[in-house]
Design brief:
The protein is mainly alpha-helical and about 300 residues long. The chain has helices at about 1-50, 55-65, 75-105, 110-140, 155-165, 175-205, 210-240, 255-265, 275-300.
Length: about 300
């Protein structure tokens, strides 16, 4: 009898744990699947921001000099980033949104509240994922450095090990300030606009499931790109900077980088590579939502 009573209790506990972690697992899995598809575009975007030319020039040079595999350089770091950053941001966004909806008597949240939750989720995700993001940026930028200055990381875990060994543990969060700000801006645009667009397409326009997911994902991708690129540009410059012969870095921090960039190139300098960035961000956002939707449908089908 005791065993019979214990089994339902254990099953209920397992169900409760899965219900808690499910938004995080689903978010991380969808982000990792999307990254496998988007990684080549991301490589081109980084090299454009580092001043290697247009998208076509960069693509031609990568194929001629390094081959097809160069487009997937840093994939391990990209997957690690999604396993940390996207797991935390999408999971926390869904948990916080569900809590807020409960307090709102089940009614849809206003856009301002969705935006605030998106900001919060972005900050949480960035704090968790900043080390992997640093490793990804360095691995992608390594081939642009002179041979003597290249770090030659083998994979994401080797990069993290080397950073800790050479620069200390706190170096894993180098550039974390602009990373967090950029993530807050991106997720405010991405998460809030997606939920708002789903309500628009589904409830007001009467669109079907496929049209709703695709339409809301496209809107989400655009706003994520527009809100985050200036911060992404500054973050990239900070994370890839190297000291000169005297040991001095070109920027003292993200604000100094932003001011010097503005003085040298004006406000549009922050939108360097916007078409490629938008092409990279929007499909990644779309595929993340599409994969998430498919994962949720599969879970519903098998009853978990």
């Amino acid at each position: 009898m005791a065993d019979a009573k214990q089994q339902p209790t254990t099953a209920a506990a397992a169900t409760g744990v899965w219900k808690t972690v499910k938004p995080f697992v689903n978010g991380g899995a969808s982000g990792m699947l999307a990254t496998c598809v988007i990684q080549p575009i991301d490589m081109v975007k980084v090299k454009i921001q580092l001043g290697e030319g247009s998208a076509l020039q960069v693509t031609k040079n990568m194929l001629a000099n390094e081959g097809v595999t160069s487009f997937y350089k840093g994939l391990s770091a990209g997957l690690l980033r999604q396993a940390t950053y996207t797991t935390a941001r999408l999971g926390s966004f869904r948990v916080l949104t569900n809590k807020a909806v409960e307090k709102n008597d089940g009614k849809p949240l206003p856009l301002v509240q969705k935006a605030f939750i998106g900001l919060t989720a972005g900050a949480i995700g960035a704090c968790v994922g900043s080390p992997a993001d640093l490793a990804l940026i360095r691995m992608q930028a390594d081939s642009t450095l002179p041979i003597a200055q290249r770090r030659n990381y083998k994979n994401a875990f080797h990069a993290l090990y080397r950073i800790v060994a050479d620069e200390g543990v706190l170096a894993l969060w180098k550039g974390a300030g602009p990373t967090v700000v950029r993530a807050m801006a991106l997720n405010m645009g991405m998460l809030a606009s997606y939920d708002q667009s789903v309500e628009l397409f589904r409830d007001k326009l009467g669109a079907g499931e496929v049209q709703t997911v695709l339409g809301a994902s496209a809107v989400s991708g655009f706003f994520a790109s527009a809100c985050s690129l200036p911060f992404d540009y500054v973050k990239t410059q900070i994370q890839k900077m190297q000291p000169d012969a005297s040991g001095k870095y070109p920027y003292t921090g993200s604000l100094d980088c932003a001011m010097k960039t503005f003085k040298s190139g004006g406000p549009f300098k922050f939108y360097t590579g916007f078409p490629v960035y938008c092409v990279r961000i929007a499909p990644h956002v779309m595929m993340t939502w599409i994969f998430l939707n498919q994962i949720q449908k599969f879970e519903k089908k098998i009853g978990i």
